[in-house]
Each structure stands twice: as structure tokens, then as C-alpha cells.
Amino acid sequence: MSELAHGSKAAVSARGGNVDAAWLSMLALVAVLSLMPLFAGGFLLYSLSLCFANALGVLSVSMLVRYGGEVSIGHSFFVALGAYAVAIVEHRLGLSIAVSLPLAILLGAGVGFIFAFPSRRLSGIYLAVATMALALALPEILIGFEKFTGGFEGLYIAQDLVPGVSKALQRYYVALVVLVVVCLALMHFRRSAQGLALLMAQAQPRAAEAMGITRSWARVSIFTVSAALASLAGALTGFASSTVSPNSFTFFSGVFLLVGSVVSLNRLSLPAALVGGAFITLVPTYLAKAGDWVPIFYGVALVVVTLVANAGDLRRFLPRRRR
Question: How far apart, in whole angstroms, are the C-alpha atoms of residue 104 and residue 97?
């Protein structure tokens, strides 16, 4: 009995040590990123700003996979929604991102709910195809509403969040702060009653229904939250790049978000989000000379990551050694 108690205490102590190490690692990573503008040039800061915004987009897809067990190919639709919300509010009302950012989140949540409610009984490949329809229709929608979206040319986002401060620093620090806050919120959400209820609805649907949580409503809830997060990512993407146009939100934009989610192993931590964001932002930037080979690199990386992540499951297909 005493040994069991000692073992339990040791396990708790080890777990506490791991948690402390994770927190220290995260704080060190945030400290390094906070000091980056002292050493990095303008182009790297611009690339990292987009990387942070794309990391939020990757988190939105990963959240849908983790809590809903579903895959979306068309989250670029909600990213574009947030980006154009910031641009249109500035052009029509003359207001900065301080006002349009909350509006973009609400707009993403509202449209996400409108899409998710009639689709709540779809799952797997059927839901993925439904989201793909959003991504395919997006460029035509943006061009069709030219009066508001600027058509092919798009819109320019010029207003600063804090007047008088360097635009490059604003892009960088706003995206970084929002990314860190979202990661902390996701950590809290996982331990919350709502987060546990969504996980239960996915893993044990009958047990969840006995507690009054139906799987269809869980799907609607998580898709709504995921769409809001994607719209937030779009608002920061527009702010960081200072421009929005249909070419920035093609069908492949949604595919790349899914690729980033797979590369980050669908995890919701800050390091994982940065890995996914960097993969879809920095790799194409620094491999621009590779041209048409970039999608091939993406495909190879996807295969490698998928094989490594599922190495344990694949071992059972290997021939067993004779003793």
C-alpha cells in the first residue's frame, strides 16, 4: 500500500516536472520570438508575421480534427471571410483592425454555424467534400461581389493599429500576441467541462448522449469555434500582408492548411502550430526557386509525416521475427 502511494506520488511528481518543463520551453520560445525583431531583417519579420497568422489557420483545422474527428478542405473560405472583413470595414467605415478583428471573429462564427447546422449529420469524406465546395466557390464569390471586395485587384489594408509605431513591428507583435493567447486559451479549453464534453461526444457518443450531449450538436459547436478561429487567422493574414485578393484564397489555400495540420500532428500547442505555420509559409518562400516542385515536396512531406506518425500501427503489417 505504501509502495503504491509512493509510486503515485512519484508519478504525480514526474508529471508535474514534465508540465514545468513544457511551460519553461514555451516561455523560452516566446522570449526568443519576442526578441527576434532585434536581430531579424524586414523580410524575415514579414515572413514570420504571415507564419504566425497561418499557424492560427492550422490550429483551426487541427481543432476540428482533435475535437470533432473531422477534416476540412475548405477552411480557406473562413480565412478569406476574416481577411475581407478587415479590409471592407477599413474601406467602408474607415475603422482599423481594433474594431474589425472582433467583427471578423463573430462573422466567422456566424457563417460557420450556418454551414455546420445543415451539415451536422455529415461526417468523414462527405463533410470534407462539402467544405471543398466552399473553397471552390470562394474565388467566384469574391469576384462576383466586386463592388465590396475589389474584384481581381482586391483591397489594400493601410491603417495601423497603433499610430506612430513601425508597421513591420505591429504586424509581427500583433500576430505573435494573438497566437500565444489563442494557444493558452486552447490549453484551458482542453481542461474545461466544455472541452471534455466535446471529446467525450467524439470518443464515447452513447455515453455523451446519456449525459444530454448529442454528437450532432457537438459537431455544430466545434465547427463554429473552428470557423471563428479560421476567420481570426484571416483577419491577421490580411493585416500582416496589407492586402487581400482572390489569388490569396484559392482552393489550394485550404489544402495547405490541412497539410500544415497534418505536419503538426494535429496538436494544439504553440510549437506544433509554429511548425505547421512555418511549413506552409516559410517553405514556399525559401523554396521559391523550386517552382512547380513545391507541391511535390508537400506531398512527400505528407507521406513521410503520416508514415512516421502511424509507425506503431504499421508495425503489425511487418513480418514477425522467428525466435
Answer: 9
Return contacts of 144-151, CB within 8 angstroms, 24+ apart: 148/84, 148/88, 148/92, 149/84, 149/88, 149/244, 149/246, 150/87, 150/244, 150/245
**190: its cell numbers:** 482542453
Q: pTM (2 decimals)? A: 0.85
Q: What is the CA radius of gyration of the chain?
A: 21
d(CA 264, CA 183): 14
Dist. CA 43–CA 189, nearest whole Å: 35
- For residue 253, the surrounding DSSP H or E stretch is helix 251-263
Within 13 Å and on the Cβ side, how many CA atoms surround 264?
Answer: 33
Segment holding 156, helix H or strand E: strand 155-156
pLDDT per residue over 185-239, tens digit each? Answer: 999 988 888 888 888 887 787 877 777 778 888 888 999 999 999 999 999 999 9
Distance CA 137, CA 164 (A): 39
CA distance 221 to 198: 9
Residue in 209, 70, 88 with CA at minimum distance from that of residue 154: 88
Determine the straight-line distance between the first and last CA of the chain, rounded to whole angstroms.
38
How confident is the prediction for the chain on average, in pLDDT?
83
**Chain position carrying cell 476567420:** 231
Give me the DSSP letters along 18-39: HHHHHHHHHHHHHHHHHHGGGT
**CB-based burial, 112-151: b 16+ in 10 Å, e otherwise:** bbebbeebbebbeeebbebbbebbeebbeebeeeeeebbe
